Amino acid sequence: MKVVILGSGRGSNAEAILRAQAAGRLGAARVVQIVADRPDAGILALGPRFGVPAAYVDPAPFKTKLEGPGEERFIAAIQAAQADLVVLAGFMRVLKPSFLAAFAGKIINLHPSLLPAFPGLNGIGQAFRAGVKVTGCTVHYVAQEVDAGQIIEQSQVPVMTDDTLESLTARVHAAEHVLLPAVIARLSQTAS
Ligand code: GAR
What we know:
Elements: E1 2-7, H1 12-22, E2 30-36, H2 46-50, E3 54-56, E4 65-66, H3 69-80, E5 85-88, E6 94-95, H4 97-102, E7 107-111, H5 123-130, E8 134-141, E9 151-158, H6 165-191
Parallel strand pairs: 1-2, 1-5, 2-3, 4-6, 5-7
Antiparallel strand pairs: 7-8, 8-9
Helix pairs in contact: 1-6
The structure holds glycinamide ribonucleotide.
């Protein structure tokens, strides 16, 4: 199962996937391409470290969505890699129906809350400010509505009374780093 990872930021979840692959814990999945929508994204540095092609693809002309020429460039890059699974690991853009149709049923997203609670930006901060006792992270299929596709798997993270936003963020990220590679491995087993 050929996996293409899309990201915008530091890429700690992409690194967790690549570490799992190196340790033989990614099932029949293999990361074949990393794509970033920012030329300075930390995720791009993982390519040389793990021997995986990593490329910046110009998302222009829009700032928060992928549409028009930028969307066409992303679709072409993912198709060139012959992706069986597209993993959004901190990819901070809204996808349009044309992109979803190009990879129907093959796009999964990681979100730092127990969806449907706290969708959108800063899911960890939203949960922290709401004072919930349990939050977590979710891997779901991507649908048209943001953070609303079918949930594949979730991991719960307790909120401690002495938690700061920083300590809670670290615990949610640690849970993400376990959950996302495990889901990819499982999907690769059911696909093969
Ligand atoms: C992750 O916490 C992920 O859940 C979040 O971005 C972070 C990326 O971190 N995604 C969203 O909020 C999507 N709505 P990373 O670049 O270190 O993997």
